[in-house]
Automatic annotation (TrEMBL):
Catalyzes the conversion of epoxyqueuosine (oQ) to queuosine (Q), which is a hypermodified base found in the wobble positions of tRNA(Asp), tRNA(Asn), tRNA(His) and tRNA(Tyr). [4Fe-4S] cluster 2 binds at residues 196, 212, 239, 242. This is Epoxyqueuosine reductase. It is found in: Cytoplasm. Residues 174-206 form the 4Fe-4S ferredoxin-type domain. The gene is queG. One of its GO terms (molecular function) is metal ion binding. It comes from Myroides pelagicus.
Length: 308
């Protein structure tokens, strides 16, 4: 059994990489003092739009010890999803993270393996795995754990790999050796702010979620407001504009996760083919996909809005 914080931390990080994660950082499970006023202001200004669930569990979002009894460490992990091939330029666009199998399933499997490894090699450790499934401020914890910095587009950015990666956590009742945060390297760059088709990035580090194309095409269940007509830049599910223009993403390399590989039809479909999408083709292309969140009817709504 591993018997000190340093050895335990190193073993966890090595196992995380073996399981296919891109990086792993560890931080002390504590109250997120700096994020509290930012989250409160963001909610007060209504920047979460119709995502009313963001108003729930305010205290739990800021303190992991309220999610896991006796929590001492937050193990943050990243997993690359940058594809080796992108969609046909003539098609309506889907965010790269949704090309393959739903990341919730892929990452949760890896996280459970990592937790089992910790319990087998270290002993009785209690904890929970989190993949977008609970009130956890992923980017704040990943930043604390040194995986990158939160950029002006509110994405986590790593100097050696950019921002095309998922973030997940293990919150455990085990004290470990903690990593420190990295520094911000956005500098004077404003490419993400300048490129946003709907001006959702209202200033450095301030993203109005209710204007974001990802929100409009995924989270919003009502009709897309007419004021966004002609501004969605052919995105029918999600949006990658602020990442595509980020200089740090020149370091992004194709992922090695087979389950993230795209269906060939998705890559090659033209706008005309998308407009004639049937339920059968939708189910074939997006089997086990995150796109199922918006459902067939939701994707058709988005396509119709792009046609108008």
């Amino acid at each position: 059994m591993l018997d000190n914080k340093g050895k335990r931390s190193l073993a966890i990080k090595q196992e995380a990489i073996r399981l296919g994660f891109s990086s792993c950082g560890i931080s002390k499970a504590d109250f997120l003092e700096e994020e509290a006023p930012r989250l409160e202001r963001w909610l007060r200004l209504g920047m979460h739009g119709s995502m009313h669930y963001m108003e729930n569990y305010f205290d739990k979002r800021l303190d992991p010890r309220l999610l896991v009894e006796g929590a001492k460490s937050v193990v943050s992990l990243s997993l690359n999803y940058y594809p080796s091939e992108i969609q046909n330029a003539d098609g309506f666009k889907i965010s790269k993270y949704a090309y393959g199998e739903d990341y919730h399933y892929v990452i949760k499997d890896k996280l459970k393996e990592l937790l089992s490894f910790i319990q087998e090699t270290i002993g009785e450790v209690d904890g929970r795995v989190f993949v977008d499934s609970a009130p956890v401020l992923d980017k704040a914890w990943a930043s604390r754990g040194g995986l990158g910095w939160v950029g002006k587009n509110n994405n986590l950015i790593a100097r050696n790999s950019g921002s095309f990666f998922f973030i997940a956590e293990l919150i455990i009742d085990l004290e470990l050796e903690y990593d420190g945060p990295t520094t911000d390297h956005c500098g004077t760059c404003t490419r993400c702010i300048d490129a946003c088709p709907t001006n959702a990035i209202e200033g450095p580090y301030v993203v109005n979620g209710s204007k974001c194309i990802s929100y409009l095409t995924i989270e919003l269940k009502d009709n897309i407001p007419i004021e966004f007509s002609g501004k969605l830049d052919d995105w029918m599910f999600g949006c990658d504009v602020c990442q595509d223009v980020c200089p740090w993403n020149r370091f992004a390399k194709p992922h090695q996760e087979e389950r993230f590989n795209a269906n060939r039809k998705l890559i090659n479909m033209s706008k005309n083919e998308w407009q004639e999408l049937t339920v059968e083709t939708f189910n074939e292309i997006f089997k086990k996909s995150a796109v199922k969140r918006t459902k067939y009817s939701g994707l058709l709504r988005n396509i119709d809005f792009l046609k108008d």
